[in-house]
Every structure is written in structure tokens, then in C-alpha cells.
């Protein structure tokens, strides 16, 4: 059987570009939220302004905004009293929102927020059909990732909801958005493991702190046993203590974070099965890192006791598996 190595797992982790941008995009007070989401696009109005008109204003400075603003004023006259503002929004839509960027759209009253990734940089003109309610013809294609109730979001993202612009730059919120769109990823030369605490009960400090301490203790002991350079001191932990909430483990010690992730997934038993003792089975067919971690977790009574206590705390907190890691392990297993 193939030896699944840490490097193979690391190479398969989602890598987020430092140049990725983030946008909050209005849906006409939620009127077009479902249509954007179901149709896999975002769209902006002012249909009488063509893509060629917008291109003429793409000079990269205020001159271009003036040029495009004048065209808007000519076509819409007294119907539009802020032509330069509209020009800046249209230019942003056409040229600043690029492939790979993340876009957030709100439903009515922002009760739900849908997160998606732009899959093509060029805007396109949609052909009118009788099936569509959205009249906006200028569009960009989006692959929607997930829809989250506003109340389940990090409170730091609430500030975005107060913006009334059609398009709002959201790069300042990248840290919080990344944790929604990915549960295990590499960015800025660091790995980030996001654990979702799903309990709706009050979080007990003992569960929270003992869980983290035990997981890192197991990493230290496993690294020592396997003569690996990873140490718990190399990691940073961030907590969002709302319930439900997040625990984020980050650090440049990428291999160490992968090991912690595999330990937690193994103990939680979700995504792929790990059973201990004579009936041991695994959905990952390998004699490599998974097998080593399995053997380590059953090595002696002290380790088994820590494993069982960690399992209890994870159950009490209702920790969700980092689905990105589970997906990677399954894909590598298929290959």
C-alpha cells in the first residue's frame, strides 16, 4: 500500500493567495439574492452603459471616472445625480473584482450571507429571458461555497452589513472570511486549522482549554516518538468564544498542524472511520502517517487516557471535523 506522507497532504491543502481580494456585494435589498445564488452570478445595473463605455473609463485615475461619469450623465440625465459615484462602482465591478476573489452577498435584512468565489475576471452581458427576475445584464460568474446565517458569523463581519454601497471592499475582513470559506488552508506561509464549535450550550472553560492542551500534548509526544521537529510552542491559538464559535490553530509549523488535524479527525471519527482495538478499520488505506498516528494513539495507557479525555471534550463542544482535511484524505486515498 502507498505510504501517505505529510508532504503529500501539505501539497494538497488549499492555498489562499495573498493577492486575493474580498467584496461585499448588495442584492437590491435581498430582491435578487436567490437569483444570484441559484444562477451562479452577481450583476450590476445601468444596462444602458455598455462594457465598451466602462472600458473607456478604465484609465486608472480620476480622468477615467470623469469620462465614464459624463457618459452616464448623458444617458440617464436627471435620473442620476451621482454619475461619478456610479462610474466608480461600474469600474470596480468590471476591473477590480477578479477571478479567485471572494464575494459575499446578503439576503433580505442580511439574515443570511452567501460566500462565493469569482471564477472569471471578465464581465459578460446576459441575454434576457422570461425566466429571470433580475434585469441587470452586466454579470460575473461565481461559484458559491456556502450560505451562513448572520447570527452564526464572527461578529467582526457585522460591520460589513452596514455598508449601503453596491460594492464594498472587504479586504480588512479577510481573516474572518477565510475561516468561513476554508477549514484547513495555507496563507502567508502559515497553515491554519479551523475547528467549529457547534454546541449551542454555554461553553465550559474546562472543555475548551483542556481540549487544546491535550491535543498539543499529543502532538509533542508523537513528534518526540517519531523524531519530528514539531512543537506545540510553534503554534498560535485564536478563540471566538460565541456559541457556536471557532477555534483556530495557526503557525509556520505546517506539518505539526496537519498532525494535530489528523489526530482530531481520527478521534472524532467523522469523515472517515477509525476504530480502536481488534476491530480497527480506516477509510484511508496507507501504512504512512495515518497508520503511525493510529498506532501512537493506542500505544500505552497514558496516551489512551488522553485520547479518551480529548474525545469527551470534543463531544461536549460538538467539534465539527475540518472538512477540507477530510476531503483531502479521501481524495489522496482514491489516487
Describe this structure in words.
- The chain has 2 domains: 6-14 and 186-334, no CATH class; 22-181, ph1033 like fold, CATH 3.10.590.
- Helices cover 39% and strands 19% of the residues.
- It has 11 helices and 12 strands.
- The strands form 2 sheets. Strands 1, 2, 3, 4, 5, 6 and 7 form a 7-stranded mixed beta sheet that branches. Strands 8, 9, 10, 11 and 12 form a 5-stranded antiparallel beta sheet that branches.
- The longest helix is centred in the middle third of the chain and has 22 residues, at 205-226.
Low-pLDDT stretches = 270-287
Any idea of the CATH topology of the largest domain? ph1033 like fold
- The number of helical segments is 11
Instruction: Calculate the mean pLDDT score and round it.
Output: 87
Major sheet details: 7 strands, mixed
Q: Report the radius of gyration as a whole number of Å.
A: 24 Å
Amino acid at each position: 500500500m502507498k505510504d501517505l506522507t505529510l508532504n503529500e497532504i501539505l501539497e494538497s491543502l488549499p492555498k489562499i493567495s495573498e493577492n486575493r481580494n474580498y467584496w461585499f456585494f448588495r442584492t437590491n435589498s435581498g430582491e435578487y439574492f436567490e437569483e444570484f445564488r441559484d444562477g451562479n452570478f452577481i450583476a450590476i445595473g445601468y444596462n444602458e452603459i455598455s462594457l465598451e463605455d466602462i472600458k473607456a473609463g478604465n484609465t486608472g485615475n480620476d480622468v477615467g471616472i470623469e469620462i465614464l461619469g459624463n457618459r452616464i450623465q448623458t444617458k440617464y440625465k436627471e435620473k442620476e445625480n451621482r454619475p461619478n459615484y456610479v462610474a466608480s462602482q461600474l469600474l470596480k465591478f468590471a476591473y477590480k473584482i477578479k477571478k479567485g476573489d471572494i464575494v459575499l452577498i446578503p439576503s433580505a435584512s442580511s439574515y443570511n450571507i452567501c460566500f462565493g468565489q469569482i471564477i472569471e475576471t471578465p464581465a459578460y452581458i446576459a441575454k434576457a429571458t422570461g425566466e429571470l427576475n433580475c434585469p441587470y445584464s452586466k454579470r460575473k460568474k461565481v461559484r458559491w461555497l456556502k450560505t451562513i446565517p448572520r447570527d452564526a458569523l464572527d461578529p467582526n463581519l457585522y460591520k460589513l452589513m452596514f455598508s449601503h454601497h453596491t460594492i464594498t471592499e472587504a479586504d480588512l475582513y479577510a481573516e474572518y472570511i477565510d475561516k468561513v470559506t476554508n477549514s484547513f488552508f495555507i496563507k502567508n506561509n502559515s497553515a491554519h486549522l479551523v475547528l467549529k464549535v457547534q454546541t449551542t450550550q454555554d461553553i465550559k472553560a474546562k472543555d475548551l482549554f483542556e481540549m487544546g492542551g491535550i491535543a498539543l500534548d499529543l502532538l509533542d509526544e508523537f513528534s518526540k516518538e517519531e523524531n519530528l521537529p514539531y512543537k506545540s510552542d510553534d503554534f498560535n491559538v485564536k478563540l471566538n468564544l460565541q456559541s457556536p464559535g471557532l477555534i483556530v490553530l495557526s503557525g509556520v509549523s505546517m506539518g505539526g498542524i496537519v498532525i494535530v488535524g489528523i489526530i482530531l479527525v481520527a478521534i472524532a471519527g467523522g469523515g472517515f472511520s477509525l476504530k480502536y482495538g481488534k476491530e480497527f478499520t480506516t477509510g484511508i488505506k496507507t501504512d504512512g502517517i495515518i497508520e503511525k498516528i493510529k498506532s501512537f494513539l493506542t500505544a500505552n495507557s497514558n496516551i489512551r487516557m488522553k485520547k479518551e479525555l480529548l474525545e469527551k471534550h470534543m463531544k461536549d463542544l460538538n467539534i465539527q471535523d475540518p472538512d477540507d482535511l477530510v476531503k483531502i484524505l479521501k481524495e489522496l486515498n482514491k489516487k
